[in-house]
Amino acid sequence: MSINVMTSLPRLFVPTDDLHRERVLLSGEAHHHLCHVLRARIGDLILLLDGRGLCCQGRLEEIQRLQASVRVLRRWHESEHSLPVTLIQALPKGDKFDLVLQKGTELGVSCFQPIETTHSIPVRGGRREAKSQERWQRIIAAAARQCRRSILPELKPICPLAESLEGTHHGLKLVLWEAGAQPLRAVLPAERPAAASLLVGPEGGFSQQEISTVTAAGFQAVHLGPRILRSETASLAVTPVLQYLYGDWQAAPTGQQPESA
């Protein structure tokens, strides 16, 4: 089967253990998306992915009211070559973080770390956080299906700012701050960093104490010019710059082969 045909097939994310079986049973959201949204028919070819790189091509064999059966035809592994970007994002108001997750997934963010800061909206703890995490996971999966991304970005639990800094020990570390003394371009290295951590504050900005904590952790404070961007816009503005300079934006789109010289 050609690459172009393969990448046009319906894509579903399922648990890893299911992909090691010869016959995969789809239920819940996967069944609904395949049978009611895509309106797949018996005999259709489907791509099943575990979000960690394991991929399967399968054939839809049976459709029932609450589940469907897919016969696995072949398996393989895929990897990503984009710059690993961890987006540490203070939770904005309303559903703006939904946009950050959707577009960040398309742009190649590898890990989302939502945080609470002095001026962010409190969400952590209880049923509200659990429901938010479930919704956010669905948004990430839907965005990954749309952009043909085989590996799902990691979504970490909401945590305080100081705790989020503990896992950022290497690579390029940037905090977007309107009072930052340096423009973004001034701190970008010539060589590709091993990874990048991008810290974005809430609508009310960081407190001076928070900035002191962040810079003490090795983050470089940068600004994005004379215009003050919204919290959800700032991260989506910087991520493509990093992927253009250090990531996989020079590669051909999925399903296309580069032209020969």
Please describe the topology of this protein.
Elements: H1 3-7, E1 11-13, H2 16-19, E2 23-27, H3 28-37, E3 45-49, E4 54-63, E5 67-77, E6 85-90, H4 96-107, E7 111-116, H5 126-146, E8 154-155, E9 159-160, H6 161-164, E10 172-176, E11 182-183, H7 184-187, E12 196-200, H8 208-216, E13 220-223, H9 231-246
Helix pairs in contact: 4-5, 4-9
Major sheet, described briefly? 8 strands, parallel
| Strand proportion | 25-35%
> How far is the N terminus from the C terminus?
25 Å
| Helical proportion, percent range | 25-40%
Q: What is the overall silhouette?
A: elongated
Quaternary state reads single chain
Query: Helices and strands: which structural class?
Result: alpha/beta
Radius of gyration: 20 Å
pLDDT averaged residue by residue: 88
Low-confidence spans: pLDDT under 50, at least 5 residues? 1-5, 256-261
Along the chain, the helix and strand elements come as HEHEHEEEEHEHEEHEEHEHEH
* Separate helix tally: 9
Q: Find the count of extended strands (DSSP E, 2+ residues).
A: 13
